[in-house]
Design brief:
This protein is an alpha/beta fold and 162 residues long. It has a single domain, classed as Rossmann fold, CATH 3.40.50. It has helices at residues 3-15, 28-40, 56-71, 85-92, 102-107, 127-132, 143-149, and strands at residues 20-23, 44-49, 76-79, 117-118. Strands 3-2-1-4 form a four-stranded parallel beta sheet, with helices on one face. Helix 2 (28-40) links the parallel strand 1 (20-23) and strand 2.
């Protein structure tokens, strides 16, 4: 199976006639996704949500990568949070945990609302992702989205994977 071609086809289908936004964490999944998007010929922009606790190497990598992409005419944005991770820890009274994921919801997941936001997530990372993620995920899918998507061609998982 040609995974690269399949990924390009998926991006072209998702793009349609309008650009999408890639959420780039600076990690390997995001880097592969950006590389595939460049090869796809689709119009897209890239955003990075600075968490205030990223490794310095990640911060420098994103800056260099975005500088290079901007020189290619691709819109890139680094979004800074209203509160740092340290302020969130004080406000919540505890560091984030696997069950208390306020860091992700506050620092990463509240961006891109109303946009076609594409993320690089490997199903192989966990059984939960393998079971609940699909080609596309509709976070907190509303009933009308479920009605539109769940038919003979698409299946929506319990958590919004398509």
């Amino acid at each position: 199976m040609d995974y690269e071609k399949q990924a390009i086809d998926i991006l072209q289908m998702l793009a349609g006639n309008s650009p999408f936004t890639i959420a780039d964490s600076g990690g390997k999944d995001s880097s592969v996704l950006t590389h595939i998007a460049l090869k796809s010929g689709c119009k897209f922009k890239v955003q990075h949500c600075h968490t205030t606790v990223d490794a310095p190497e990640t911060v420098y990598f994103i800056r260099r990568k975005f500088e290079k992409m901007r020189s290619m005419g691709i819109e890139c944005e680094i979004r800074y949070p209203k509160e740092t991770m340290w302020q969130l820890i004080v406000r919540n009274g505890t560091p984030p945990t696997r069950k208390m994921r306020y860091c992700c919801s506050e620092l990463k997941e509240n961006h891109g609302i109303g946009e076609k936001l594409v993320t690089g997530v490997r199903k192989a990372e966990s059984a939960n992702r393998r079971k609940n993620q699909g080609v596309a995920t509709f976070p907190k899918p509303k009933k009308n989205i479920k009605d539109l998507v769940d038919d003979e061609n698409f299946h929506l998982t319990d958590r919004g994977g398509w």
